[in-house]
Fold:
Amino acid sequence: MINIAIDGYSSCGKSTLAKQLAKSLHYIYIDTGAMYRAVALYALQNGFIDNGEPNMQRIELALPELMVEFKINPESGNTEVHLNGQPVEALIRYTHIASLASRISQNRMVRDKLQYWQKQMAQRKGVIMDGRDIATVIMPDAELKIFMTANPQIRAKRRYEELKAQGKQVSIEEVEAEQKLRDFQDTNRKEDPLRQHPEAQVLDNSNLTPEQQLALVLQWIQALTKFQ
Structure:
């Protein structure tokens, strides 16, 4: 067994690949971005958002009250996020939650808290994590590091179709604007910005189906573990 770190831009299919790999390899999948989304949801539900901006002082004070966990859904077999014991998988997938999470994730105290949990989860082998700083910060010793990217227009179209399938009323222009903002926030934030690890395998899936990218990465893993 090895550990796999997946980093990359939003709407590149990181979680799709991670879930596929976890099922194929019988590994544990930890969606680190979902942890920040859970904090953002908690902030929104408890009135810690002032004029659209997260009140970081109040969020910092509330951190001891937070517990983010991953539990297996017995019906789907998928790993889902629980916030203080309650399932919140569907609630954290809204676009405005994603934007709040990107801003909240810039806070050092929040990152320290969540990164501590993530590093504890990565103590064992057979772990797959995806996010923005997995290879550079959380699992620098992961045997396989992947950096995912895709054409911005293709990424926006994928996200738009995903939201429409969920019944969300959004325009492609709104999705493109939100994506552009998230890219800027993720690559320019002071705390652990999105960076490609020098040892990472680059996976541009602009013209790949999920099945094709899974097959490609499984080939990488087979080559990597051949002599282990």
Residues 29 and 128 are 5 Å apart (CA to CA). The first strand starts at residue 4 and ends at 8. The beta strands are 4-8, 28-31, 49-50, 53-54, 68-72, 79-83, 86-87, 127-131, 144-149, 201-204. The longest helix spans residues 172-188.
